[in-house]
Amino acid sequence: MTGHEAAAVRAAERRVVVGAVLLMLFAGFNSSLLHLGVRFVGAELPSIEIVFLRALFTLLMTAPFVFRPGKLAWRTNNLPLQILRGAIGVASMWTWYYALANVPLADAGVLSFTTPIFITLGAALYFREVVGAVRASAVVLGLIGAMVVLKPGFDTVSLAAVAAVGSSILWAMSLLIAKDLTRSDSRSPSPSISR
Hints:
By secondary structure, the protein is mainly alpha-helical. It has 2 domains: 41 residues; 147 residues, no CATH class. Helix content is 74%, strand content 0%. The chain contains 7 helices and no strands. The longest helix is centred in the first third of the chain and has 39 residues. The mean pLDDT is 87.
């Protein structure tokens, strides 16, 4: 490969990375808008109805890609585990939307950051992954931080705050199941579905 060809390859790779970063920023912005929308309509609609509408909209937007003629975009070798993951994902979304509608956004955001804590605990229990001292310390500090936000003993812990933590636990379970599905499904769509 000549120097000119190598430079062209590096430029193409750079464009891909920049495009991926821009898509991630766009996705994060849209996720923030979604959460603000849930907060806005949460006063008028029950959380389960918001979950249904979001799922319906997602189905309508993705159906042309999933069900395109001549190609099967998705199949599974473990339908029961996919169904379990879907049910847990719906429960996570339901509790998350309830929390968004009833907890201050800052508190809901902080409590949602407990998901990695529960993923670490779940990976240690379910996959028997070794949790080193650094990760264990991070889990303990994260749990202490969550307790500071929840303030047990000072105020009554609200049902919505418990729902936020419950949503994080459920979402961690969903992500762990998605990892488990990679053993049986070569291309699992599971990680692309989010709360």
